[in-house]
Inverse folding.
């Protein structure tokens, strides 16, 4: 007698974390696009973020577009210690790691592309290394936002810590809109559904159309 296949588990985010660095000099830099994404979600859902010392973060909770409870987090620990803040929140609310959606920058994706995954390695990203270390697993969803690679010989560090070019800056509202749509779908129908729809989409550079 064959066993009935168990239906796939639908992964619904309960905590959305944006990765970045807290000082004003890092505002609007490529490495802080995770912070920008959480700010865009907070604005769209009218959730106010305030400093929470227990979590070492800016934190807010409210309801997403579909009315489901959601928590937003911007760690203030600096990128390479982001996991400390995440672990404080997951312990406090007793959230499983797979309910944590982490949003961060990725040089391997071109500007205008986003990529969702249910799990995976840090891929050299210090914020994700810390997240994996403190959550104790790689099995949590993530949404990577493309920041492209530098042209010519510019160092990778100066690229990620640099600000977007004027043309890239023009694209950012559309990129963040794509992120909001993907996150909202993941909250309604699960991360896998959002992956199938949004991993193939991209925002075009208006100057190159």
């Amino acid at each position: 007698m064959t066993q009935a296949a168990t239906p796939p588990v639908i992964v619904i985010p309960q905590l959305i974390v944006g990765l970045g660095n807290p000082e004003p000099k890092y505002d609007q830099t490529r490495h802080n696009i995770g912070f920008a994404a959480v700010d865009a979600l907070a604005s769209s859902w009218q959730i106010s973020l305030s400093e929470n010392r227990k979590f070492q973060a800016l934190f807010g909770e409210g309801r997403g577009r579909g009315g489901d409870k959601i928590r937003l987090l911007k760690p203030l620990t600096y990128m390479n210690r982001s996991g400390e803040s995440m672990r404080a929140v997951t312990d406090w609310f007793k959230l499983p790691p797979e309910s944590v959606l982490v949003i961060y920058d990725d040089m391997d994706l071109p500007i205008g592309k986003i990529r969702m995954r249910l799990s995976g390695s840090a891929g050299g990203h210090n914020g994700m290394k810390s997240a994996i270390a403190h959550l104790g697993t790689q099995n949590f969803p993530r949404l990577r936002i493309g920041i492209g690679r530098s042209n010519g010989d510019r160092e990778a560090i100066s690229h990620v810590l640099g600000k977007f070019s004027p043309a890239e800056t023009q694209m950012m509202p559309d990129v963040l809109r794509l992120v909001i749509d993907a996150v909202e779908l993941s909250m309604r129908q699960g991360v896998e559904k959002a992956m199938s729809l949004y991993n193939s989409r991209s925002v075009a550079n208006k100057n190159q159309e």
